[in-house]
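Hi R.,

As promised, here are both runs. First protein below:
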Amino acid sequence: MSYDPAELRGKAAIVGVADAASPSGELETYGRALEAAMVMEALADAGLSLSDVDGVLNAGDSMGLAEYLGIRPRYTDSTSVGGSSFEVHIEHAVAAVAAGLCEVAVTVYAQTPRGDRRRPAAGGPWRRPGAMLEWEAPYGLLMPMGAYALAASRHMGVYGTTPEQLAQIAVSTRQWAAMNPRARYRDPLTVADVLASPYVAEPLHLLDCCLVTDGAGAVVVTRADRARDLAKPPAYVLGVGSCHDHAMISEMPDLTTTAAAVSGPAAFSMAGVKPGDVDLLMAYDSFTITVLLLLEDLGFCPKGEGGRFVEDGKLGPGGALPTNTNGGGLSYTHPGMYGIFLLVEAVRQLRGEAGDRQVDGVDVAVAHGSGGVLSSMSTVVLGGEGAR
């Protein structure tokens, strides 16, 4: 029996979003209370209530979350594949809604690593999977930044990518953050500033690396026909695709090519669009090299040309490919897993709700999550009414 993913195109939509971040990098609420606050805010954004929710997705503990919320969902999903978990959740929620397994699904994320420094029992360091402890940790690679430094070094060696080109990604992202009042950092940034910042793992400088902040977000999904009657314009899910090809960085098949080369084409094919049709890209920016690799693997430029593609500032305000318009994980917020924020900003841009940073004419937006150490990739293509 054959299955055509295109049958799911436009059958479901994101109808509610919420996120929390602050210029200080810290939030006062944390834990389950912060998750619950995000769920309620996203539901209010959609014009729905908690009693409408019968699908719960959470990266690790959907049962505990549902219990805390006081609901008994018909559909539950605890898939956790790092920063791309929430794009994967959208893929799963679309399938569940289309199959009638649930009517209204919510995915939520909340972490407070900065605030947890004042609550030592509540937080913890970046943890390596067991295989990493046995096979990689003995060699002293600083994680997770060391893994990305390996990818950057390889890309530089094979394709001639320069530190200046990577730095331009951070600069363009900061230009967007300057227009976001909740961004952690809004001060002007230059390529020279990035290169003058200390190395964290050569060739990556401190300003090539994402933030460590508190943050949270939630997204609500329901059927397309129901979505049209709710409080905000729907962001239709036109295409989805996911793929992971390794866990340890030493097992990555090619340090210059991620599994986005699989997830991206799958999502674009399902959506019936090409990279050239995309008005906005929200690409996971754990590090500047992450963005560069994703631009290539998603098809926005040929393999090896990512550095030249970004060096004219086309990712920033006024550029040909507006990217990470909220300020990204490099300047807005990054509490550990960033994928939920990609979806929230994409929806707000489609609705025209992004304020000073609003991009004109956004009708097709891509949110692409990356999890692990360039390990798990998931691509979501969203569209407004005109793209459906």
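And here is the second one, sequence first, then its structure tokens:
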Amino acid sequence: MAPLIAVTGATGFIGRHLLQALPAQGFRVRALLRRPAELPAEATGAVIGDIARPQNMAAALEGVDAIVHSAALTPDLTGRPADDYRAMNTEATVALARAAQRAGVKRFVFLSSIRAQAGPSAAHVLTEAGTAAPESAYGESKLAAEQGLATLDIDWVALRPVLVYAPGMRGNMAELLRLARSSWPLPFGSLTARRSLLALDNLSGAVATVLAAPGPLRCAFVVADRDALTVGEMVAALRRGLGRRPGLLPVPVSLLRAALHASGRAEAFRRLAEPLVVDAAALAALGWTPAVTTAAGLERLARDAPA
């Protein structure tokens, strides 16, 4: 019988995709839900309530071979206190892993973040071998969860994805797509820093890879598409998907920096003009093969994402 995988965060951006992608990879899927919800035909469900205070875990995890924990509190612009991230991303994760250990679950796959390892940019190529140095409460909460998992007697693996793109995404990539859809020339032609992205299809392939890998693993893997692009190249790919020219202006980086800093958007400048390149060779050595290149993925995103 195919392995049974329990998925948290199943109604979220990544979780919804996993409910359909994992059965295609040969897994049975059970969604762990806060409340009853409609699920695709490929998945069953178990209601456990609030992930921070779950109920009925013994029944929900009966027969489960592995958990994919994608539920998380993600960054927003409201100045959320660090305690909120710690409660949801760290404490709830470790408590769920303890419950999995008691239920005899064989592997716990934690969807962490590249922000557990670095800030919004990095001067050197990031691999798992580098020292983790998060720069936000969100990143610190993810790293603390990984450290908590390492203290438990369960085979665990943390995936540290970079920014994930697919229809339905929010945040920075949704904003870049909105700009690419506009008729205006964009001032990104002089940007030379490359940044790694991750197609959602490639992320689900990485999850399937670590679920199927022989154990024990008990480590973290960075995850990114193979090719890193400049922001201008990203816009050009999106506009190709729309059947349009790149429309990029070579505005000096110093002017872009001054404008964004003056408007209080210094971190936005880092995301645009500073590098964040990730080398996922360790995950590839485990058998992961990204199915989508970033350029092709962005072209398809522009064609398929609702306006």
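A quick note on the second one: Strands lie at 4-8, 28-33, 43-47, 66-69, 107-111, 155-161, 164-165, 198-199, 219-223. Let me know what you think.

Best,
J.
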